[in-house]
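About this split. The held-out portion is used to measure sequence recovery: a designer receives only the structure tokens and must propose an amino acid at every position. Recovery is the fraction of positions where the proposal matches the reference. Here is one held-out target exactly as it appears in the evaluation file.
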């Protein structure tokens, strides 16, 4: 019984840190390629190029969630672990949203995309 709890905790923590690490790595990479991407948050007037940068940032975050779902499912195949991972990442995104306020659409889509991305990664491993 203790082994199962330990395995679930390890799965959630590993998936969470995978998502956080990859999100930071993608953000650093994007800031090297597009230095103006570091000034997007907090502004209300964005041009079309800046919206594309936000879409790129959103794609990177959701891809990180997909890979986090893979890691969680690789360690433990329980769907509850995905739900816990989603809850922790959602709390971080809500905090980031509260810190920057704008663009609201980016944060809403990001929150709505967490579970489907992680679940897709989970399903991919669970089928095997």
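Reference sequence for scoring:
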């Amino acid at each position: 019984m203790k082994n199962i709890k330990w395995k679930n905790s390890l799965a959630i923590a590993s998936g969470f840190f995978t998502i956080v690490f990859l999100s930071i790595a993608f953000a650093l990479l994007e800031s090297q390629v597009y230095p103006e991407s570091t000034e997007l948050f907090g502004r209300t007037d964005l041009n079309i190029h800046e919206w594309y940068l936000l879409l790129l940032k959103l794609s990177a975050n959701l891809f990180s969630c997909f890979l986090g779902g893979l890691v969680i499912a690789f360690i433990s195949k329980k769907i509850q672990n995905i739900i816990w991972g989603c809850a922790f990442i959602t709390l971080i995104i809500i905090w980031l949203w509260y810190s920057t306020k704008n663009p609201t659409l980016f944060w809403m889509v990001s929150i709505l995309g967490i579970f489907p991305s992680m679940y897709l990664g989970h399903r991919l491993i669970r089928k095997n």
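Annotator remark: The CA atoms of residues 30 and 37 lie 7 Å apart.
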